[in-house]
């Protein structure tokens, strides 16, 4: 197989509040022989909040990020669901609206850049499944996670809006019965846990302005996984991770019962199965202790 | 001659039953039926009533996706029964389907719910044109096709409640207007004939009930049978709050604006700086968790942030491409 190579849009949290996500991404890419070219020029995607304030500015900034992936002639991979949404949504809107694309390019032209629409934007989870393949992952597993019940937490912005699925993912998945993360758990030898909250919202985006709503959503998600005998949770989104890992105190208080489970990034889960060490995967950076490694 | 062939398949149904006048708890009835590829969900509701149990109750009227009466939940997904084909439901969920009312806690009888909260919130956003009508006009009040286009399908809403009862915030926060009311508010805010602008927007800006509590989960867009895309309208209303000068400084507006400041300074986000800018003195409540995060190496001080390469480009673009003021 030809060596896989992608332009990596890390997003902001991978460099700040979830360093373990960056470490595990690099460790897993190394194990799988995937080359990642980090887009060090990229700005923040706006996280759906800049979009509430200044839509055009957020389009220009995201188009700039994609333009750098295009310069490399590579597919852009994201490692955050919200980066994925805002980048893929920008691409969707510009590719379907020549007038808007021209307006954005007029601005990008001022700094010598152009958005062409030639690079695909996908999440690292989807790139691994679509391009690398789960069968090959299965062959490479050295530490099967067979003793664990693992609860997948998909994160809204990979699976919704579903109109973007066709453009970002070779095998589009349903927002109601998503399978990508379950399939990865199974490929790692783990037992996937089914529960009602797996494709629901974690509340991250209203953490500051509606803390009670956010805490209840987080609490419900962890409680759902616990009630279905999960040993731990796994997510492709660092924002969901931050909620589920660091906000258990508020979540427990909000729903009136103690909830906490170790929460792994999907890269960390895959890394464990592929034989990466706890240090390589940054497991010490979690607030809810990863107590099983 | 058409070569269209009708296929059939066996589907198992679990159907929610409850009569608020008689039952202490709800229960489920099971049915197994041969379902054809021609049928929609409403056909199955009819067959349950007509062939199995005449006491089964649900709302229906037009059967053409216009009256909005027959929305229920199929395997937890809000579904307009007369519009969605059984084939699609089986594609989505397999051959074991659960029929429930849009909101179990509001169930009156079987699929019928009390939609009072939906209508109260719908009424609260003033769902009509507010305008000083000249009773003796001397010329037509023309709306250009471009201006009509601005409504962006928002007036296609049939008030079925599918999005309202799919919204996770409506479940938690009783005051929250919800996606249908917001989409309706947008429909009038975007109408050039409407003069209410700031009156309606000020109410939409209110804490707790208003726009800022939307969690951005896209559940509303996913379920809408008329492709109204409520979350897109919510985003446009957010932008309108700033454009019309209605947005006042609060934690939510500072949070949105804070991204721009952070990007202009670093390219990437300064996470701690954003929380400080958004919360102001309120940041103290985050200190206990922040300290634990700091110990675990999850907090980078402002001077430790890796700024974007070619930051001058970003600074220039923020200057030249900004379209909003606060």
Taking strands numbered 1, 2, ... along the chain, how are they ordered across the largest sheet of chain A? 2-1-3-4
- The overall pLDDT of chain B, averaged over residues, is 95
Strand content of chain A: 5-15%
| Overall CATH architecture of the largest domain in chain A | 3-Layer(aba) Sandwich
Low-confidence stretches of chain B: none
How would you spell out the order of helices and strands of chain B?
EEHEEHEEEHHHHHHHHHHH
Count of helical segments of chain B?
13
**Helix/sheet category of chain B:** alpha+beta
Summary, kept brief:
Chain A is built from 14 helices and eight strands. Chain A is α/β, with parallel strands linked by helices.
What characteristics describe this protein?
heterodimer; A: 293 residues; alpha/beta; Glutathione S-transferase Yfyf (Class Pi), Chain A, domain 2; Rossmann fold; four-stranded parallel beta sheet; 47% helix; 10% strand; globular; B: 326 residues; alpha+beta; Ubiquitin-like (UB roll); Fumarate Reductase Iron-sulfur Protein, Chain B, domain 2; 3 domains; five-stranded mixed beta sheet; two-stranded antiparallel sheet; 38% helix; 12% strand
Report on this structure.
- The complex is a heterodimer of chains A (293) and B (326).
- The longest helix of chain A is centred in the first third of the chain and has 18 residues, at 55-72.
- Chain A has 293 residues and is of the alpha/beta class.
- Chain A has a four-stranded parallel β-sheet, with helices on both faces. In chain A, strands 6-5-7-8 form a four-stranded parallel β-sheet, sandwiched between helices.
- Chain A is 47% helix and 10% strand.
- The mean pLDDT of chain A is 97.
- Chain A has two domains: 5-123, Glutathione S-transferase Yfyf (Class Pi), Chain A, domain 2 (Up-down Bundle), CATH 1.20.1050.140; 134-285, Rossmann fold, CATH 3.40.50.11810.
- Chain A is built from 14 helices and eight strands.
- In chain A, helix 3 (55-72) packs across helix 4 and helix 11 (211-227) crosses helix 13.
- In chain A, helix 1 links the parallel strand 1 (5-9) and strand 2 (35-38).
- By secondary structure, chain B is α+β, with helices and mostly antiparallel strands.
- Chain B folds into three domains: 8-113, Ubiquitin-like (UB roll) (Roll); 116-133 and 141-243, Alpha-helical ferredoxin (Fumarate Reductase Iron-sulfur Protein, Chain B, domain 2, Orthogonal Bundle), CATH 1.10.1060.10; 251-321, no CATH class.
- Chain B has 13 helices and seven strands.
- In chain B, strands 2-1-5-3-4 form a five-stranded mixed β-sheet, with helices on one face. A two-stranded antiparallel sheet of chain B has the order 6-7.
- In chain B, helix 10 (251-266) crosses helix 13.
- The mean pLDDT of chain B is 95.
- At the A-B interface, helix 2, helix 3 and helix 11 of A face helix 5, helix 8, helix 9, helix 10 and helix 11 of B.
